[in-house]
Structure formats: structure tokens, C-alpha cells
UniProtKB/TrEMBL annotation:
Domain Non-reducing end beta-L-arabinofuranosidase-like GH127 catalytic: 111-263
Organism expressing this protein natively: Rhodanobacter terrae
Alphabetical list of Gene3D superfamilies matching this protein: 1.50.10.20
Cited Pfam families: Beta-AFase-like_GH127_cat
SUPFAM superfamilies given in the database record: Six-hairpin glycosidases
Record InterPro entries: 6-hairpin_glycosidase_sf (IPR008928), Beta-AFase-like_GH127_cat (IPR012878)
UniProt name for this protein: Beta-L-arabinofuranosidase domain-containing protein
Organism lineage string: Bacteria, Pseudomonadati, Pseudomonadota, Gammaproteobacteria, Lysobacterales
Amino acid sequence: MSVVARLLSRPWLRPVPDPRVGLQAAAEWLSRAQDASGCGGVSAHYDAAKRKWAGAYPETTGYIIPTFFRYADFSGNNEYRERALRMAAWESDIQLPDGGVRAGTMDATQIVPTIFNTGQVLFGWLAAWQQTQDARFRDSAVRAADWLVAAQDPDGAWRRFASPFAAHAVNTYNTRVAFALAKASRALQEPRYLDAAIRNVQWAMTQMHPNGWLENNDLEDNKRPLTHTIAYATRGILEVGLIAGDSAFVDAAARIAQAVAQSQRGDGALPGRLDSAWRAASRWSCMTGNAQMAIIWQRLAAETGEQSWKTAAQRANHFNLSIQDVAAADETVRGGVSGSHPRSGGYMKNRYPNWAAKFFMDTLMLQMEAG
């Protein structure tokens, strides 16, 4: 290998595309993922090893909806608004009779409602209703929020209706469901939803170590949670704190965010997993976690005025941009964001999940809007 080739193999030394180019490429990839499903929803992922698109995924399609509405405004391209509306209508079509959202992808054989997925689709219905004032989307949002509140235990945790595709029934990353309920409370003027959101974050705080690390915070391995689920939990705590005006929640989220920032590598990436002392527990990086943490650091910069958060976010975004391939001849990977780097790493091995592209878009839009 030549000296130049060796240098370009190091992501922090590669030419990095303009963030707008990376953003547009991710939006186009997500559009192809939606088209691949054939139903209005977005394919969960592209498997590069099997060369196959997965079935449509209700959970993540739900939170892609607000991303596409935002990108329609950001880009001036109304196609993305129309795509978001198709996603929202599809989500209403498949909403279960009790108001919940099914676990897994549409090709899963087991059809059961689950807490986390319902919370994520709630973000989409709220965005669609706010964009259109279509009563159908408001009705779907109310039914979902009511179901979530009814399923909550008195201490604020959700123990029923766990996903059959996750290893643990009780999860602190359900604070991202609390975030959706807090948004629903504000949008729908329903105090019960914010009360439920606050109770869940209060419960999550009982799972927090003095150093900010959270128990019960992974899909599979609670001793070494993914930065992906760490970020889910942290964002939920932060956003509920901001909506509720609770500085203790905001401070707790900042404590976690600072601990994660201290694990950031020289190239801007984060270890894919972290142990209870915030030490790297994997050699690969979770691309989704990188993007999500960059969002949190930017939100903290905006809300607290402490601009030091921006540096960590920009470095994480630089790393992700350096990995994204915007020039691949193969449309199934061009503009997509892999689950892990290297692609053979331990999270979504050899796959391009739609949620990685979604959070990648969100963080780039935040960065460009902040200037």
C-alpha cells in the first residue's frame, strides 16, 4: 500500500465532503429505502452481505417523519414532505386497535404492541398533525399516548409490552418514550402526558450511578451498553427536563454527555460500547451512537450557552462524514450510514440501518443551522 493510500485509509485524514452533500446523500438513501419497502414505510436496513433490503420498520419510520419534514424545509424540496406524509398515513393504517405500534419489522411473524416503538411513532404522528392539522394524525397520536400512559407502572417504569426482540423487559432508554409523551403534552395540551414523562425520568434516575452511568440500558448487554442506547436515554432525560423545566434532569443528562465525551477518540468516533466506568468496551464504533451524541452535545450548547459542547459534536460529525460513501456506484449503499465502523463491527454487522441515516441527517442539520 502506498503512503497516500495508507493516509486515506485513516478516516480523520480523508477528504470530508461538504455536510450538505452528505446530508442530501443520506436523504436520497432514505428515499430509496422507503421505495424498497413498497408500502410507504421505510425498510429497516440494507444488508450488504446478503444484498437484500429488510421489511419496513414501523418504529424507525415513525421518527424519520419529522426528519423528512425538517429536511423539506431545509432543502426547499417538497418531495420530502410528501414522503413524510406517506409514512405517517401508513403508520395510521397499521396502528393496532389498542393504540400501540407493533414490534419488529413488517415481515416479523409475531404481531404484538411494544412500548418503545409506540413512543417513536408518536413523534411522527405529532409532526404530521402539526404540519397538516389532519385529524387522523391527531387521533393516532392521542390513542398512542393514552395507551402508553395506561401501560405505565406507578413508579414510572414500563415493564409490560416489552419488545420480544430485545433481551431485557425493563429499560432506562425508554426515557425516549417519555420525551415523545412530553412533546405530546405540549402539542395536545394534555398535562397527563407530561406527568407520565416526568415519572419515567424520575424512575430512570433511580438507575443512575454517581458517575452518571445507567443500569438497564442496552438491547442485549446491560454491562456494556451501546452508545446508541446511552444516547436514547440521555436525550430523553434532557428533553423532558427542558420541557418540564426541571434543571436536575438537564444536569443529569449533561453529566452523562460529559462522561461520553471523555471517551471520544482522536478521530472523533466513540467506542461502540462503554462499561460502567465509562471505559471503551469495544474496538469498533457505533455510527448511530456517534450521530445521536453529537445531537445531544449540540442541544446542550444551544440550551446552556456553553459552546465547548460544539467541539465534540463537530468532531463526531466529521468522523461520520468521512465514513459515508457519497460516490458509490451501488445505490443501495451510496449515502447510507453503516451500523458499525468497521462495517463488520458488533452492531448491525454489514448493514446500513435507516436510523443511522436519520440521526446523521438530524445532527448535520443542527450543525449547519447553528453556523
